[in-house]
Design brief:
The protein contains two helices and 14 strands, in the order αββββαββββββββββ. It is globular and about 50 Å long. It has one domain. By secondary structure, it is mostly beta strands.
Length: 236
C-alpha cells in the first residue's frame, strides 16, 4: 500500500512538473479572481456605458502565475440592449492584422468606445507587463486592442473580440506565447462610454431590480475550471 501511494505521488508530481514546463498553470488554494463590472447609467432604459475592473492572482502557483483565462462571458442586466447600427456610432471594419499594424488608427475615430489598461505575468523573464487597452465598435462586437505601453517593449499586441448577443458579451482569449514564453493576462481596467441618447443610443441599460443593476461575469480557465462573480451598481 505504501509503495502504491508513493507511486501515485510521484506520478502526480511528474504531471505537475510537465504542466508547469508547458506553461499550463494549475490554480493553487491561494488563487483569487476579482471582477467588478458596473453600468454608467443610473436609470433603466437610459443610454449607458460600463466600467470593468478584473484581476487574478495566485501567490501559491509556480512563478506566482495564475491559471490563464480562456473565455469570459459578461451578462449585463436582463433587457440591456446594444445597437451597432445607430448613427451615433461608426463601426470599425478593419481586420486584426490591420488593427495591430496601425495601433488601432485604421479604425474611424467615431468607432472608439473607450480605453484602459491591462497587466500580464510573463515570468520568469517579465513578471509584470503593463499594456494599454483601446475599445472599438465592431460588427455586433466590442474590439479590444491590447498593446505594450512602450513601443518595442515587453508584451504582446493582441486583438480580442467581445461578441454581443442580446444582453451578453462573450470574449474568447487564446493562449499567449512570445518567443516560447507563456504570458497570462492578470488584470484589465476598462471604461466604455455611453454613445448617443434616446433612439440613437448605442447601449441601453436593462432591468433595475431593487435599486440595483446586476452583472454576472463568468470565467472559464485553460485548466477547465469555471467561476462566476456578481457585480452590482445603483439605479432607480
Amino acid at each position: 500500500m505504501t509503495r502504491l501511494r508513493l507511486t501515485a505521488a510521484a506520478l502526480a508530481a511528474t504531471m505537475l512538473a510537465v504542466a508547469a514546463m508547458a506553461g499550463f498553470a494549475l490554480a493553487s488554494a491561494q488563487f483569487k479572481q476579482v471582477a467588478k463590472v458596473t453600468l454608467t447609467a443610473k436609470k433603466q432604459g437610459a443610454s449607458t456605458g460600463f466600467g470593468a475592473s478584473l484581476s487574478s492572482s495566485d501567490p501559491g502557483a509556480p512563478l506566482e502565475k495564475p491559471q490563464a483565462l480562456s473565455k469570459l462571458v459578461i451578462a449585463f442586466p436582463a433587457k440591456t440592449s446594444f445597437n451597432f447600427k445607430t448613427k451615433a456610432l461608426v463601426v470599425c471594419k478593419a481586420n486584426d492584422t490591420e488593427i495591430k499594424a496601425t495601433g488601432g488608427s485604421v479604425c474611424p475615430s467615431k468607432s472608439k468606445l473607450g480605453e484602459g489598461g491591462s497587466t500580464a505575468n510573463g515570468a520568469p523573464v517579465f513578471p509584470k507587463v503593463d499594456e494599454n487597452v483601446t475599445a472599438f465598435a465592431g460588427s455586433n462586437q466590442i474590439i479590444l486592442l491590447l498593446a505594450p505601453k512602450v513601443v518595442g517593449g515587453p508584451g504582446a499586441t493582441l486583438v480580442l473580440h467581445g461578441k454581443i448577443s442580446k444582453n451578453t458579451m462573450t470574449t474568447e482569449v487564446p493562449p499567449i506565447t512570445v518567443g516560447g514564453l507563456t504570458i497570462v493576462i492578470t488584470g484589465l481596467q476598462l471604461k466604455v462610454k455611453a454613445v448617443g441618447s434616446g433612439k440613437t443610443a448605442w447601449a441601453k441599460a436593462g432591468k433595475c431590480v431593487k435599486k440595483k443593476f446586476t452583472v454576472l461575469s463568468s470565467f472559464t480557465y485553460s485548466t477547465g475550471e469555471k467561476l462566476t462573480i456578481k457585480s452590482t451598481s445603483g439605479c432607480k
